[in-house]
Design a protein that fits this description.
The protein has about 230 residues and is an alpha/beta fold. The protein contains ten helices and six strands; from the N terminus they run E-H-E-H-E-H-E-H-E-H-E-H-H-H-H-H.
Amino acid sequence: MNGTEGMSRIARVVVADDQTVVREGIVMLLGLLPGVEVVGAAGDGEEAVRLAGELAPDVVLMDLRMPRCDGVEATRRIRERYPATQVVVLTTYADDDSLFPALHAGARGYLTKDAGGEEIVRAVHSVLSGEAGFSPSIQRRLLERLSEPAPAASPPPPGTGPAEPPDGLTLRETEVLVLIAEGMSNQEIARRLHVSTATVKTHINNLFAKTGLKDRAQAVRYAYAKGLVTLRTE
């Protein structure tokens, strides 16, 4: 099946990139694919924030290195002012100094510019479904980075550990959190636990409320920080 088939709605997208040729190329590429409608294009972060307010897009495809207001700051402003608009980073850079500030600012997806059009569309619809929109290489890098020990972290008090759910989570909420960290969608979690997707969403809402998490990317970081999951090696 084509990766863009089965999408139930057209996602309204703003493209933000300071390079005119790149920006116009992305707009043209997305215009050829089903599932998205480009409603605006911005040449810098300031314009991206303005268009997010004026056009109320579902998603902003955000470059990171831009004049006046970079992509990280623009992402932060959009997520604070217009929480209904999601941000998917689309950039040349995949290093930690680019990836993690963008995620902390509220980006729900992260792709590099070698991504194909259908991969971009999938990421857009993933974040609209409450899932993360990472390319495979970014997801591997994220998991590798999160699995590294944190030297400055204090050891847990004696008698505590991942066997005891943190922050008042129930065992089922903890189980859902672990499956999120393993990259499962709501539908996959529902099949694994033999429950409805509505029940999974309820568990996710509850565990987000208890932990203060805002999105699935933060949930992945949280699960690794609490020792609930570890990186699997082949």
